[in-house]
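Submission checklist for the structure archive. All mandatory fields must be present; incomplete records are returned to the submitter.

[x] Identifier: LINE-1 reverse transcriptase isogeny
[x] Organism: Senna tora
[x] Residue count: 296
[x] Sequence attached
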Amino acid sequence: MNGGKALGPDRMNLMFFQHCWDTVQEDVTRMVGSFLSRGYLLRTMNQTHIAFIPKVDSPSSFKDYRPISFCNTTYKIISKMLMQCVTTTSMRVKINGDMTYWFLPKAGLRQGDPLSPYLYVLCANVLSNHLITSQNDRSIQGIKIARGAPSINHLMYSDDILLFFRADKTTCDKVNKLLHQFGELAGLWMNNQKSEVKFSPNITEEGAQVLTRILNCQRVDHWGRYLGGYTDGYNTAKRNASLILDNLQKRLTGWKSRMLSQAARTTLIKAVVVRSPSITCNIHGSLTQKQLNVME
């Protein structure tokens, strides 16, 4: 686990336990042993803080925030141990003298639990396979980035999905039907208030309005920022490069006035760069020599 993650209600992150392990080892071991033997978890250990992180520059409603859960480190330690048990243990039931097939035990988990990403990936993989099947049978055809490249109709990252398909009524109906079926099976439904649709400039205004009503989501001309960077629009590389400079300048404001040593300055800059959104940093090749000089 990452030792530098945000603090939970206990105000002690994993880095504290790692650095003070010689002191807290016995207490942590007894705590875990007590839970495994009695199956009882203190209410205070199971508490969680929720923070709302703005996804846009000027949030105006609840949908413009992303909820993030901060669990206690002791709870995470126990969850990690349980995860190992769940992923490595299988069971079967004896009924009337006959054994059933082997199966894995499961239970519901809240957001922020170390097990949650693994369970979500399993569900999202089902949707991805259905979309691939739809691509192969040409019911939901995607796009090609080059003539010899394969067609793709979706991209996934975390709990976000980007769909590519033809702007016609038949395809939109099939996409709606597929997402509805997935929602009924997995209990994961598309949030229409947060979902956006962008059409090709080749479509007519009347056609775009009809398809927008079918998809029941917001129509946009350009996507906003995602993971701290611009994904479309004019001069995307240059705008993303400017974001890196602006981010550095905001976070390092006042550091010169503190008369830090060269070593301290280097440490501070590294800390800022590490916390910069990875998708933004990945476009460093688009930075001009003038911009690189400013960063130095």
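[x] Structure attached
Curator remark: The chain has three domains: 14-88, 114-221, 235-293. The two ends are 32 Å apart (CA to CA).
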